[in-house]
Amino acid sequence: MIIALACVVVAGIGVNVTQNISGEVIRTGDIHQSLRLDNAIVRVTDVRTGTAMAGQTDDDRYKTGGMILAVTLRVEAPGTKYTVGGDDGVSVQAGGRTYAAFGPNTSITAEAGFASTGDLLFEVDPNHIAGAYLELYRSEFIHVTPQKVHIRLGITQQNAAQWVAAAKGRTLQVGSASSEPLG
Amino acid sequence: MSASTQQRPTDRVDKLIQRSDRRRSWLMASMAFALVLIYLFIWMTYAGSHTYSRFRQLPAGDSATVKGVTFTLVSLTRTGVITDGDETHQAQPGTTYVIADLQIVTANKDPLCSVELVADGKRTWESNAEFFDRKKPQYCGDDEHPVTPGKPWDYEQIYLIPAAFADRLYGIGVEDLTSPAPTKVLTPAA
Asked: So where does this one cross the membrane (chain B) (predicted)?
């Protein structure tokens, strides 16, 4: 009983202390800006909009009544292999909404010493895209400092209508991620 | 000794019991604290050993056995070109192929024989997903050519890695997911 109580007290103190000293580490940047996420470096190199997408096979075709946002992301892994994305590691946030990635690439993996570049697709509401940013997130069981990266996609209140207009009737061609060795 | 300070034998016994109780309480608290420390130490050791990859390079030519499969690395060579039947594949600029020539002896049918290439900084690479048409297979047995328990099976694993790491290789890692021990890294006999 005493031991169990002591464990609970120690665990409680531990949680309290780590909450106070860590919280989340959020780095914010813009398109074309390199940002560190754990031991990887990430950079959004392009943003495109459309109302349909076409992948490498006929099954990879999709049309939406909303808008598709294609975010080209480069992931560099100078150390060990690194994966960005997955089930809950990547999203676009806009107008208080959270959009999950869909399509052929929902994660991008860079092998050790390589950089991988791929398109992440998001089906978004064209009426609420101003201020959209890409959120990359990685949390591990043992980490006390979960890291997040927010990358502004260059869609502002002023130019949101232009992005929507550019999307109309446009089919986005999406390939698989490519990789190259780091210099 | 005055009458007021005189203690009856029962008072002394009570004090001794009280003191003994206090000591016992401190002892119990110390034991609880020590047990919590032991618990934390074990948990942190377990978490540390299961969270990050660790590697242990074996002496040149040594074999490693994982789940009844004994792995031996015969050679580890780098090349810019891979032959694939009548075709050849050139490594993209800045990269190189590394070919691991391996032999296994298994106690079981249908052994798993994927191994990873290990370099410094805990960098690892998995072998190419596609198979090439070469003298040696890049897999361990199929329906037509099953691996026979007790009989050596020669195969190779091909990796595409940045050329910058070609001189910083540790060897071939044979991972045992059921063990917290460091992954054994094979190196070819000198």
From this structure: 25-46
**Does any domain span residue A39?**
yes
Domain ranges for chain B, please list them. Answer: 1-52, 55-186
Residue A101 lies in a domain: yes
How do residues B107-137 score in pLDDT, each as one tens digit?
A: 988 888 889 999 999 999 999 878 888 999 9
The total number of structural domains that make up chain A: 1
Residues 72-101 of A with CB under 8 A from B: 79-81
pLDDT value at A18 more than 60: no
Q: Using the beta-carbon criterion (under 8 Å), do A113 and B161 form an inter-chain contact?
A: yes
Among A149, A129, A125, A152, smallest CA distance to A138 is for A149
Kindly provide the b/e burial profile for residues A2-39, where b requires at least 16 CB atoms within 10 angstroms of the residue's own CB.
eeeebeeeeeeeeeeeeeeeeeeeeeebebeeebebbe
Q: State the smallest CA–CA distance between residue B122 and chain A in angstroms.
A: 6
Interface test with A, best of B90, B130, B161 (most A CBs within 10 A): B161
pLDDT band at B73 (very low <50, low <70, confident <90, very high): very high
ipTM: 0.72
Cα of A8 to nearest chain B Cα, Å: 10
pTM: 0.77
Class of domain B55-186: mainly beta
